[in-house]
Amino acid sequence: MERNTPIEMISFCQGDGRLRPLRFRLADGTVVRVSRVDETRLLEAAGVTALLYFCRAQIAGRELRFQLRYLVKSHRWVLFEAG
Amino acid sequence: MADRIIYHVDVNSAFLSWEACYRREHLGDEQDLRDLPSAVAGDKEARHGIILAKSTPAKLRGVKTGEPIWQARRKCPDLILVPANYGLYVAASRRFIALLKDYAPVVEQYSIDEAFVDVTGCRRLYGEPVQAAHKLKERIHRELGFTVNIGVSCNKLLAKMAGELEKPDKVHTLFPQEIGEKMWPLPVGELFSVGPASRARLEQIGVTTIGQLARMELSRVKALLGKHGEHIWNYANGRGPEELEAEAPPNKGYGNSTTLPADITRPDQGRKVLLSLCETVGARLRADGQRGRCVTVHLRTADFYDWSHQTPLPQPSDATLEIWQAACRALDQMWQGGTPLRQLGVSVTRVSRDAARQLSLFGDSYDKLARLDQAVDGIRRRYGEEALQRAVFLQEDGVEHMAGGLSRERRTGVTKPLDEEEEYPE
C-alpha cells in the first residue's frame, strides 16, 4: 500500500471543534467504514499542522489498523499508512 | 530589577532541518536528510544554483553555504540536493516564533530562523536560565521536530556569539566573565558584524583574534575602520545592546534584484529588466503605504564588478512608472550598453509614510498613475501576479514581468515581518 494516499472522507465535526473520521473512499472505489479510533494526536512538525487518527476497520471479515491524517492547512484527508 | 537574561535561539541548518523534518514526519520518508550528506539548493536550471543549507554530514565533507552547486558536487559527489520550498520554511518559521512568543513576553525575530528572547524575571517560572534553556530546546524538538542552538547571556551580542559556539543542538553561555576564555581566542572574522573587508584590514596589522581586537586602543581601531571600528571594538569587549526590538523596525528602503538567465548588452534590455523590478518594488511600497524620494540602480557585470548610481525623485512616489523613469535615468548615467550585465537591482530609499506631494504647475499625472497602480495591485492580489502584465513582457526573452526575490514563493512574506495570524487562522 502506498503511503500518504489522498482519500474522500465523510467526517463528523463536533460542537467543541473535535473532528472524527467516519467513512472514506479510496481512489479505486473501495469504501471503508472506520469502526474505531484508538488514539488521536496533533502533529506540528516543521510548522505544518496535521491531526493524526489511529483507527481500525473491518475489511472482508478481518480487522485492519491504519492511520488517517487530516491536513489542517489544505483541508485534505490522507490514508497515511495501513497494515 | 533582576539581571537581564537574553536567549539567542537559532535553528540548526534551518532550511535543511525543516525540509528533512517535513519529509520524514509528513511524507513518511524512511530516511532522514539530516543523517545523509544533503543540501537545499537554489534553482539548478537558473544560474543562481547555490547551496542554501547543508546537513552536518555534508558540512563534514566541506560543503559550504552559498557556494555554487557544481563546487559542492566536486567535494561531495553523492550529495543529495533538494529544491527549496519557501512556503514550508515560512510556515515553520512562523510556528517557531509563535512558540517562543508563547514562552516569553518579549521576542525579537532577528531573521527567518533566529530570534532573541528576553527571559529576565522568568526564573521563578522556568528555573535557572541554563536548565530552562535546555528545556526550551527540548520542547522545540518535541513539538516542532527540529533542533536549535540557544546562547545564554546578558545582552544580545553575547547571546548571539554564544549560540554560534558549537552546533548543533547545544546550549552555551557567554557571560561577561567568560569572554576571555570562550570568545577572545576565536578568529576575529567570527565576531558579529566583522565582514571579509574589516577582517582583511585587521589581519594586515596582525590582529587575528577577537581578544587582540578587544585589547587594542580604541583610537587605533577608529583610525583603521572608522565608526564601524568603534562598534566592533565594543562587541569584542562584550558590550552590545540589551533591549529587544519586539516590533520590527520600519523598512528603511525597498529593493529587489535579479540575476538574469543570460547576460544583457543592450540599453532597451536593461530598461525592460528595470521595469520588471520596479513592478515588484512599487507594489511593496504601496502595500506598506510608503513613498520614496530616491531611486538607486545596482549593476553587476559578467565579470562580477559592482556599480551603483542613484537619482532623486522630483516628488516622493510609489508609482511604478515614476520609479522606473528615475531608474532609467540612473542606468543611462552609468551604462550605455556594451559591457555584459549579469545582475540588476532597483531600490527606493528615503521612504516615509505620509510624504506629501506638491501640486505641479506642469501637469501632474501622479493621480492617474496611482489609480492605475491601485487597480493593477487589486487585480494581482485577487487573481494572482500572472493575471495582468505589461505587453512588453509577452516577448519571450526570459525576462519575468515581476522580477526580484529568490523565487515567487519567497515573496509571500519572508522579507516582511512574519505574522502568524495572517495565513493560518485557527
List the helices and strands and how they pair.
The complex is a heterodimer of chains A (83) and B (426).
Chain A: E1 5-13, E2 19-25, E3 31-33, E4 36-43, E5 50-59, E6 62-71, E7 76-82
Antiparallel strand pairs in A: 1-2, 1-7, 2-3, 4-5, 5-6, 6-7
Chain B: E1 6-11, H1 14-25, E2 38-41, E3 51-54, H2 56-60, H3 69-75, E4 80-83, H4 86-103, E5 106-111, E6 114-118, H5 123-126, H6 129-144, E7 148-153, H7 156-163, E8 171-173, H8 179-182, H9 196-204, H10 210-214, H11 218-236, E9 254-264, H12 267-287, E10 292-301, E11 306-317, H13 320-334, E12 341-349, H14 366-383, H15 420-423
Parallel strand pairs in B: 2-4, 7-8
Antiparallel strand pairs in B: 1-6, 1-7, 2-3, 5-6, 9-12, 10-11, 10-12
What descriptors fit this protein?
A: 83 residues; globular; B: 426 residues; alpha+beta; Alpha-Beta Plaits; 39% helix
Short précis:
Chain A has 83 residues and is mainly beta. Chain A is built from no helices and seven strands.
What does this structure look like?
The complex is a heterodimer of chains A (83) and B (426). Chain A has one domain. Chain A has strands at residues 5-13, 19-25, 31-33, 36-43, 50-59, 62-71, 76-82. A seven-stranded antiparallel β-sheet of chain A has the order 3-2-1-7-6-5-4, with no helix packed on it. Chain A has 83 residues and is an all-beta fold. The mean pLDDT of chain A is 91. Chain A is built from no helices and seven strands. Chain A is globular and about 40 Å long. Chain B has 426 residues and is α+β, with helices and mostly antiparallel strands. Chain B has three domains: 1-175, Alpha-Beta Plaits (2-Layer Sandwich), CATH 3.30.70; 184-236, DNA polymerase, domain 1 (Orthogonal Bundle); 254-420, DNA polymerase, Y-family, little finger domain (Dna Ligase, domain 1), CATH 3.30.1490.100. Helix content of chain B is 39%, strand content 19%. In chain B, the strands form three sheets. Chain B has a five-stranded mixed β-sheet. A four-stranded antiparallel β-sheet of chain B has the order 9-12-10-11, with helices on one face. Chain B has a three-stranded mixed β-sheet with strand order 3-2-4. Chain B is globular and about 65 Å long. Chain B starts with 5 loop residues before the first strand and ends with a helix.
